[in-house]
Amino acid sequence: MTPTVRFAPSPTGNIHIGNVRTALFNWLYAQKAGGRFILRFDDTDVERSKAEYADGIARDLAWLGVTPDRVERQSARVARYEEAAATLRAAGLLYPCFETPDELDRRRKRRRARGMPPVYDRSALLLSDEEKAAFEEEGRKPHWRFLLPNFESDPQVPVKTEVAWDDLCRGLQSVDLASLSDPVLIRGDGTYLYTLPSIVDDIDMAVSHVIRGEDHVANTGVQIAIFKALDAIPPAFAHHNLLTTSSGEGLSKRSGALSVASLREAGYEPMTVASLAVLIGTSHAVEPVATMAELAERFDLGSVSRSPAAFDPADLDGLNAKLLHHMDYAQVAQALSDAGVEDDRARAFWEAVCGNIAKLGEVPDWWRVVDGPVEPVIAAEDAEMVAQARDLLPDEPWDETTWKSWTTAVKDATGRKGRGLFMPLRKALTGLDHGPELARLLPLIGRRNSLARLS
Predict the structure, then answer these.
(1) In CATH terms, is domain 1-71+196-326 a member of 3.40.50.620?
(2) Residue extents of the structural domains in the chain
(3) DSSP state of 396
(4) CB of 148 within 8 A of CB of 177?
(5) Using N-to-C axis directions, what is the helix angle for 195-204 and 217-229, rounded to 10°?
(6) Which of 76, 221, 241, 404 stands 20 to 30 A from 309 (CA)?
(7) DSSP, residue by residue, 27-87
(8) What is the pLDDT, as a whole number, of residue 252?
(9) 63-113: per-residue pLDDT in tens?
């Protein structure tokens, strides 16, 4: 059986780095196992689901290098969910409930006051046909709950019923179904909550591994029961730790915190984002990884910590810089061309500046240092020395030895040395007090530009 995983986002907003962590875990698992990756949009919430969000999710994943083997939309599969619901109703496992939200809230409060767990008491199972008809005449529309298999003969007397699984991230896990309410699968308006469509899709699409956040652990026991009620073998489960903001807050699509779109717009490289999203909160060192293939080799569900991991965007800066410092010219040639660096100096330019940039968006700034215009910075006390240096500029052609031979001549002529020699020349040539080695930069600036800036 081909390992098959899925990422099932709701297209109700921009996905954030926590969502992408789940997507990458699934993608990398499939890549490493030679399996298949399904992008499945959970778009049954018609009011909140938007096509532009679905398009944005696909765009964000493509930017990261995640290309689905199959794309599905749950809104196109409602007939299939109705078939599954009919199967559960026929088996007596899906029953109508007529309580309003206020009535359910009051009932939970009463149970808490009596020291009882605030789970649903299954009173709807005791309704007669006449009582159900009376509710419907009042205009009440039922929501439908799945009857958990947590009793021996009487549903009103639940007993401890452990559902266990070997979690690929967390080890042996179990959930007591007696501690849970029968889950609502269908709302009063007839629309489906996530649970049933997800399970039906996993069955129909032969999903072998469900890899998701640890906030779904409690749901897993319920879902295993529904898989079995539909006469299907549950997939393997893996629940990874969650990402938080640096202050420990949860991530939310609604708040837009750390959205992939915002990180892309901020100029980070996709492999920087992927490296941090995958490696943080694991036993692996957090460092930039150059390719998805290499990241897949390092990926291991068993290495994931059981504690939440704080994602600090500031960490991206250092990782992004390290990633760029090790990129060769072929990897950035198109980006350089897009930035206007297209002549025969492009390769030498990249090799000169790559160690000084944190984002590719800085390339135009450094190209202006090379090609101009540059406003020289010449202090009054340095003007005479700079003028002498101008007169001592050698003829071209220049190479990486030109800087040393020229500054040696200036030193001999002016008596300047060390910082008192090099910093005024750097400021005059580049307008900056920092930057790449001038031994590599000077041949790119050239004699004409140098003469103009030293004036």
Answers:
(1) yes
(2) 1-71+196-326, 80-167, 329-371, 380-453
(3) S
(4) yes
(5) 60
(6) 221
(7) HHHHHHHT-EEEEEE----TTT--HHHHHHHHHHHHHHT---SEEEEGGG-HHHHHHHHHH
(8) 63
(9) 999 999 999 999 999 999 999 999 999 999 999 999 999 999 999 999 888
Terminal Cα distance for the chain, rounded: 74
Under CATH, to which class is 80-167 assigned? alpha beta
CA 273 – CA 270 distance, rounded (Å): 5
| 250 or 413, higher pLDDT | 413
Distance separating alpha carbons of residues 319 and 325, to the nearest angstrom? 10
Are the C-beta atoms of residues 4 and 38 closer than 8 Å to each other? yes
Distance CA 455, CA 450 (A): 9
Question: Is 188 a residue whose pLDDT tops 70?
Answer: yes
Q: Which CATH number fits domain 380-453: 1.10.3720.10, 1.10.10.350, 3.40.1160.10, 3.40.1000.10?
A: 1.10.10.350
Strands 36-41 and 70-73: parallel
Confidence of residue 249 (pLDDT cuts 50, 70, 90): confident
How far from the centroid of its chain's Cα atoms is residue 38's Cα?
16
Counting Cβ atoms within 10 Å, is residue 455 exposed (0-12), middle (13-18) or buried (19+)?
exposed
The DSSP output letter for 192 is: B
Q: Which pLDDT belongs to residue 257?
A: 58
> Which tokens belong to 308?
């939440």
Rounded distance between C-alpha atoms, residue 250 and residue 138, angstroms = 41
What is the pairing mode between strands 94-97 and 143-146? antiparallel
> What's the rounded mean pLDDT across residues 160-167?
97
Distance separating alpha carbons of residues 7 and 209, to the nearest angstrom: 11
Give residue 323's identity as a one-letter amino acid code.
L
Q: Whose CA is closest to 243, among 251, 255, 235? A: 251
Q: How confident is the model at residue 303, as a pLDDT?
A: 95
Tokens 């698992």 belong to 29
Band (pLDDT 50/70/90 cuts) for residue 357 is: very high
Tens-digit pLDDT profile for residues 252-282 = 655 555 789 999 999 999 999 999 999 999 9
Residues 409-418 as b/e (b if ≥16 CB within 10 A, e otherwise) read bbbeebebee
Cβ contact 226:199 at 8 Å: yes
Which residue has tokens 């949009």? 41
